[in-house]
Design goal:
single chain; alpha/beta; 434 Repressor (Amino-terminal Domain); 5-stranded parallel beta sheet; 13 helices; elongated
């Protein structure tokens, strides 16, 4: 069935296309009788007319589309929750979100020129050249960063702090020989390398030995191999895992080795996913303020589009440990 156009509405209501355009776009400074305005609106509703997003973007110079650019990361509960929260909240303000994963060869400039977004939202920093090109095009950029960031519209999620917090929790419980369970997927290195750096820094600050590092795939056999390696020589008594999924694999590997958690080895994860509470024993983890991050991004997008709105305040409670039986 062909799409209903403004010309169809004009014929149906017996007025010019210009009048239809003025009515449907609520044009100010134009005198149109209430009877004519209502006749156009009734015809549009009766025919099921919906305005063309492309045409609206051309008229206003801006679309209602927020382009959310993801680096080449794996998707998991945290990213899913963040995007769902942002998409739902922006929809309440008449904005749609297009999520683009940074895989493939298409450049960011090619992408934003093709979709003409009103805002570009990045979950990792953009190259200076991309940020400058967007600025020249009049497209605001907001987003998040994995380290402290000087831009006021960027929500900093310093991954080093997560690693330090894990060691702080374990060391305060008397553990001195620690291991770090890294993810096996190299696409997560941006997160994992920073978290490991935090683990190393806190171990050094407390005079603890260098943490023993192994990549752990999400398989019992692979996790058992890592645990076996950590128990040789001076045995590791606590493991800081990259995230809860890796931590759950370590729990399974410890069970396969006949070890008791936390008596023989303690384990701490990151993200506080629902499965962490259901593990045996329940998993200690580092909670992240995902909802606060999503709220900040939404408020930053709205402030970028409306100069009368203030930039959102930052929350101090970005991370904290949720202590459970695994430590």
């Amino acid at each position: 069935m062909p799409r209903v156009t403004s010309a169809d509405v004009a014929r149906e209501s017996g007025v010019s296309r210009t009048t239809v355009s003025y009515v449907l776009n609520a044009k100010s400074g134009v005198v149109i009788t209430e009877a004519t305005r209502q006749r156009v609106l009734d015809a549009a509703a009766r025919m099921g007319y919906t305005p063309s997003a492309a045409a609206r973007a051309l008229r206003s110079g801006r679309s209602d589309l927020v382009l959310c650019v993801l680096p080449d990361w794996t998707f998991g509960p945290v990213i899913d929750r963040l995007i769902d929260h942002v998409t739902t909240a922006l929809a309440e303000h008449g904005l749609s979100v297009l999520v683009h994963s940074g895989r493939g060869t298409q450049s960011l400039q090619e992408l934003w020129r093709a979709v003409t977004p009103c805002v570009v939202l990045g979950l990792a920093p953009f190259a200076d050249a991309d940020r400058e090109a967007l600025r020249r095009a009049g497209i605001p950029v907001v987003g998040a960063a994995l380290d402290e960031d000087p831009h006021p519209d960027v929500f900093a999620v310093p991954q080093i702090s997560i690693g330090r917090l894990q060691v702080e929790h374990l060391a305060d419980r008397g553990h001195r020989v620690l291991a770090y369970a890294a993810p096996a997927d190299p696409r997560l290195s941006a997160f994992a390398d920073r978290r490991l750096a935090g683990v190393r820094l806190e171990c050094e600050r407390r005079g603890l030995p260098e943490p023993r590092v192994a990549a752990v795939d999400l398989a019992v056999e692979d996790a058992a191999r890592a645990v076996r390696q950590w128990r040789t020589g001076e045995p590791v008594t606590a493991v800081a895992a990259y995230n809860d999924e890796v931590a759950l694999a370590v729990l399974a590997g410890a069970r396969a080795m006949g070890l008791r958690v936390p008596d023989d080895v303690a384990v701490i994860g990151v993200d506080d996913i629902p499965a962490a509470r259901l593990a045996a024993p329940a998993l200690t983890t580092v909670w992240q303020a995902i909802d606060a991050q999503a709220d900040h991004l939404v408020a930053s997008v709205r402030a970028a589009l409306d100069a009368t709105l203030p930039l959102p305040a930052r929350t101090d409670d970005v991370f904290h440990v949720v202590a459970r039986e695994s430590t």
